């Protein structure tokens, strides 16, 4: 039942983001709505805020809500299992490592489905309003802040999905590892929320530092391919960055789970 409600809440948010992004595109097109495509809608809905010093409230809040919803609904459910029911759940597994691996795999599948649903919802909403023409960014004119020359819509779609998925997975596993360490559901979400908010406003610290802030890797519109004023921030960099965060989080979580004393006695580990 919970999973059904999670899906309904997520789809509702996807629809709201799609509709609001469509309205924003129309207002920014200068009367050239016929140039807007469904691919533009996907890019604006999931691409994150652009790397400007004056990031609009709408742009960063939209991206933040989309990403935090996954951590709150999905990641929180996984974390609460450890914090609230570890003493009952872990004995079902022959080793603690199996529980940890199962949860990481579950987060990977769930984050994949989450953003697949998001893209499908946006494409459905966009198909009723915009064309399927194979071009990007023409609605902003020739003097727009972003460059899309030579970027095929399918390439953009694939990278938006990969960046969103890998970023959310890395952060969700980090959230779970911290939940095991801190024995708390709220603190890890608060910690990652702060990371995300700082990343949204990272252009204020200098565009050369944007690529180092966790969270920016999931923002397609901040990469050098699209914004040449952001130096040395390639798509492959973000993928490798997320992979490193994911592996480190998995290793930390493995150590925390292995050493955790769920029975209240120091150094007692009846599952090993």
UniProtKB/TrEMBL annotation:
Chain ranges passing through the membrane: 63-83, 104-126, 156-178, 185-205, 239-257
Signal peptide limits: 1-22
Swiss-Prot/TrEMBL keywords: Membrane, Signal, Transmembrane, Transmembrane helix
Highest rank taxon of the organism: Bacteria
Disulfide bond in keyword set: no
Protein name in the entry: ABC-2 type transport system permease protein
Species of provenance: Laceyella sediminis
